[in-house]
Amino acid sequence: MVGATLTNVVALGVSPAIPLTYLVLAAVVTWFRRGTTSQLVKSAVAGRIPTL
């Protein structure tokens, strides 16, 4: 994301709003999926096939 933001600002001369918006969106999606991700990791560590 840092590279995308720097490319937009330095090379293209446009606002860094789009990459920063994508970063915030990714953070929000990650926050709401943290329970599902945690269950998948625990199942994988235990050697079970996860079912969602």
Description:
By secondary structure, the protein is an all-alpha fold. It has a domain at about 25-50. The chain has three helices and no strands. Helix 1 (about 1-10) packs antiparallel against helix 2 (about 15-30). The model has no long low-confidence stretch (mean pLDDT about 85).
Brief summary:
By secondary structure, the protein is an all-alpha fold.
Helix proportion range: over 70%
Radius of gyration (Å): 17 Å
Main beta-sheet strand count, sense and barrel state: none
End-to-end Cα distance, whole Å, is: 30 Å
Spans of at least 5 consecutive residues whose pLDDT stays below 50 are: none
**In percent terms, what proportion of residues is strand?**
under 5%
What's the arrangement of secondary structure elements?
Elements: H1 2-11, H2 17-32, H3 34-46
Offer a few descriptive terms.
single chain; mainly alpha; 52 residues; 3 helices
